[in-house]
Amino acid sequence: MNVYDSARMADVLRPLGYSPVDLPDNADMIILNTCHIRERAAEKVFSELGRLRQIREARKLEGKETLIAVAGCVAQAEGKELLARAPYVDLVLGPQTYHRLPEMVARIARAGGSVIDTDFPVESKFDLLPEEAAPQNEGNLTAFLTIQEGCDKFCSFCVVPYTRGAETSRPVASILAEAERLVASGVKEITLLGQNVNAFHGDWNGGTASLPELAALLHEKIPALKRLRYITSHPRDMEQALIDAHRDNPIFMPYLHLPVQSGSDKVLKAMNRGHTADEYREIISRLREARPDIALTSDFIVGHPGETDEDFEATMQLVRDVRFASAYSFKYSQRPGTPAAGQPFQVAEDVKEKRLAALQALLREQQDAFNASLVGTVQDVLVTGLGRKPGQLNGRSPYLQPVHFEGDPSQIGQIVKVRITAPFTNSLGGHLHEQEGTAI
Ligand code: 5AD
Ligand code: SF4
């Protein structure tokens, strides 16, 4: 979501004459768009700020001014502390106020000093942003689109409900309009974004539409949109209608990120996740029934307060049972103001490290096995650009793996059939299945 937000900040600043540059040394304004989800993310902000200060000093010697802004969730959660610790920062703004950036920049130009805006304004930033194309990567063929923000679930460990605020959905009409603009500019694959994206319920036709309803509208109204994904989902909102849509809506990719965090019922309860490990297994089996080629990814936290060896073993067992195509796993990190941070029975650092290493080894094995299982299969690959070697093309599989194969540059932007021949650590090799008649 920060990638998406950064691009929208660039959109907002463009009418003021700003445009992106490659190096901070050449920038009149530098925005750090920050993440607060784990401790190290916030630490990185401070070390990065030290570096930016030096760049600013060097530029000053050349007679150039540099505005330094901190945006995102660290700004939201620790705005005042941040200004106290790094008073040379000009601008501090939370994720809900970036539509006000031009006004803030003008205020600094007029009055000098620092400006801080970490409100949760009543107006929606989405109504006030310019109608520009949102971020596009991989040769303008894929894009993110935020449809929902915030969270009301209050997991014990998580800062999101405090930094991103209450759960809200964007109206369907505004999402359709943005998707249409993206697709008109060449985008073939959209990833819908939200902290709780499957809790989406955007205004539509005097009522609201759910995520599967939104997906159906996107498919129906925008035929040139070929692929649809969504992140991040919560198991509690994985309703049957959404599971069915994985079978019925052809633009849904057979790949789902569904964080489970732990495989122990006791820890899941302490985390306030609202479901058991078996309920998660059951959701997965319904998904596999609806869409047999679906692959799953997840998030895991090891060392939540109170987690014993036995609880950790239950997580390992869940991973063995489900078999993931890839996953993110983290050591529990105490976040200020969250319920888990103050709980007794914090797990020792070396125990967390051991558990994380064991979990990651198992997940690595599963990822390798998944990649190897694709060898010999034919996959639809969205051709995103030229490869590194002459004659080679790069693409994206339904499972988000980069795929390298020989082909013609005219195929960039098409979806072609590729027979997978080689699994690498984080990518696949293959060759075009048929030369003709395969492009969609
Ligand atoms: N410590 C470690 N990992 C965390 N996550 C969220 N909060 C914490 C925390 N305090 C992880 C969860 C979530 C992902 C985005 O980050 O696994 O799904
Ligand atoms: Fe955080 Fe996700 Fe839990 Fe919301 S549902 S509190 S965003 S982990």
From TrEMBL:
GO molecular function: 4 iron, 4 sulfur cluster binding; metal ion binding; tRNA-2-methylthio-N(6)-dimethylallyladenosine(37) synthase activity
Enzyme nomenclature, EC number: 2.8.4.3
Residue span, MTTase N-terminal domain: 1-110
Cofactor dependency: [4Fe-4S] cluster
Compartments, as annotated in UniProt: Cytoplasm
GO cellular component: cytosol
Details of cofactor binding: Binds 2 [4Fe-4S] clusters. One cluster is coordinated with 3 cysteines and an exchangeable S-adenosyl-L-methionine.
Superkingdom per UniProt: Bacteria
Keywords: 4Fe-4S, Cytoplasm, Iron, Iron-sulfur, Metal-binding, S-adenosyl-L-methionine, Transferase, tRNA processing
Annotated InterPro entries: Elp3/MiaA/NifB-like_rSAM, Methylthiotransferase, Methylthiotransferase_CS, Methylthiotransferase_N, Methylthiotransferase_N_sf, MiaB_methiolase, rSAM, rSAM_horseshoe
Recorded family membership: Belongs to the methylthiotransferase family. MiaB subfamily.
HAMAP family: tRNA_metthiotr_MiaB
Subunit structure: Monomer.
Protein name (Swiss-Prot/TrEMBL): tRNA-2-methylthio-N(6)-dimethylallyladenosine synthase
Organism listed in the record: Bombella intestini
Gene expressing this chain: miaB
